[in-house]
Amino acid sequence: MDVNKDTTQTWHGAQMDFSRDMSYGDYLALDNILTAQHPRSPNHNEMLFIIQHQTSELWMKLMLHELHAVRTLIHDGDLPPAFKMLARVARIMDQLVHAWDVLATMTPPEYTAIRPFLGNSSGFQSCQYREIEFILGNKNAALLDVHRKTPDVYARLDTTLRAPSIYDEAIALMARHGFPIDADRLAPDWTLATSSNESVKAAWLSVYQAPSAHWALYELAEKLVDLETAFRYWRFRHVTTVERIIGFKTGTGGTAGVSYLRKMLDVVLFPELFALRTAL
Question: In this predicted model, what pLDDT tens digit does every residue of 13-62 receive, in sequence order?
Fold first, then answer.
């Protein structure tokens, strides 16, 4: 008996022959994923830089998958599954926060060695990050111009820009529950960033003052607060990592770098949900 042949047919009951069956690598298309890293410099550390950003884009793809579903569910008034998805997105943002710890192991000289090979490419050009901001309400039509090179991406972002955000759908849901919301807030220019509205603040305040009477909306509000809190951590970790690695140099995409990112820390996605805390 050929002992080696016999032992390779099985290993603790595991299937060993995948000549006719789908394998783990087939299912995940690992040949495509693991060969998608193409360093342009001779520097050892560029692989870290590439994988950091590629994995972030994969997580953002999942976030968008969840966020688009959340928007539909809130529109339909089906909140329980939306809560689960919002919690998942917040945990994805936690993953992205900790991912900066890995990139932070890159020192300024190591980054300087690869920077000339990056050209004008920059995370500022991430279409998925832009779509996340749009669907969460931080809209800016001028930023669409960055994506004119890719018509399908431009069209998708333009659609998201012109549609209600998740927060807009939450406010519309409150109106359907009988809360008095200003008419112009229920039908604004969807291409503009979210701005604070007193009728919305009053409605959320009523929810928080009587949570047992409005439990679903109360839970929705807290899920949104969790989401924005996680997003703020993500932004903060981004700016501190960039400052650690490049200081106050101009970004590769032409932005002001750290000073630009610090301005983004002041953006509030769901303004009334944070403002009402003072009144409680």
Answer: 788 888 888 999 999 999 999 999 999 999 999 999 999 999 999 999 99
Beta-carbon count within 10 A of 5 CB: 8
Measured CA to CA, the distance from residue 261 to residue 243 in angstroms comes to 10
Note the pLDDT tens digit of each residue in 129-155: 999 999 999 999 999 999 999 999 999
Residue 272: closest CA among 213, 215, 210, 207: 207
pTM of the entire structure? 0.90
Measure the CA–CA gap between 42 and 164, rounded to whole angstroms. Answer: 46
Single-letter amino acid code for the residue at 111: Y
